[in-house]
Amino acid sequence: MTNAILKLPRAEVGRVPFRVAPLSQVLSAVLDASQDTGPSRRGTAVHFVPAYTVALADTDTQYAGVFRNTESAVFSDGVPVVWAGRRLHRQLAGRWERVYGPDVMEAVLAASTSEGPRHYLLGGSPRTVETLHSIIRERFPQASVVGVESPPFRPLSQEEILAQDQRIAASGAQIVWVGLGTPKQDWEVARLAESLPVVAMAVGAAFDFMAGTKPQAPEWLRASGLEWAYRLGTEPKRLWRRYLWGNPRFLIAAARTPRQSRTRRR
């Protein structure tokens, strides 16, 4: 079975190659990939990248390499990324939509049945991930959550990493939702996809938004590209660098994107 996620076209903003497709097509591709049970099945790393992550990748070649792996998929989590992508790659402008991690997580859970896919929650504080699990059971009772885990807020030892992977494998999970924050979660989904035949999804603040432990910007602000201002206002101490440094740096990274870069397919 060919991985539908990896068949989507790629186009760069800064150093990050994004997969470009309407949200509905992305959801279908994720569900198809999660159901692949063939003997040669490989893991897939899925990243939801906003402007700040593009800015970080522009300053860190190793980090940029996480997204450039042809076995991974990067989607436009932020409206400014969509605007830049449409301007830089006009041949894809009609297909380039925001593919927002929290929206994808909710839609995939809503589309799940008792037959699958099976879900594993990895990340967040113990309170957040347990609250999230309870909310999923209430809102999406047909979705099968086979594991819930809040890793320590420190680097794991090799023994701890192996034990974590063994727990995920034993659970039979097909999708692992990872909410560890940027950039840690991007490294982790890349590692998980190398180690296990799962679709590993780096969804960041989706855990907090769905659990209600952090406020989410109103829909009109999200659609206008001003979600960053709302989040900065709610968490200025934690997020000031993300936006006050990251937004200008994103503009620099986008301006450096080669105009002649071609849309890529795997």
Radius of gyration: 18 Å
Euclidean distance between termini CA atoms: 15 Å
Structural class, judged by helices and strands?
Answer: alpha/beta
Helix content: 40-55%
Globular, elongated, flat, extended or rod-shaped: what is the shape? globular
Strand content: 15-25%
Poorly predicted ranges (pLDDT <50, ≥5 residues)? Answer: 262-266
Largest sheet: 6 strands, parallel
Q: What is the residue-mean pLDDT, rounded to a whole number?
A: 91
Strand order of the largest sheet: 4-3-8-7-5-6
In DSSP terms (H or I, runs of 4 or more residues), the helix count works out at 13
| Assembly context of the chains | single chain
Listing every helix as H and every strand as E from the N terminus to the C terminus, the arrangement reads: EEHEHHEHHEHEHEHEHHHHH
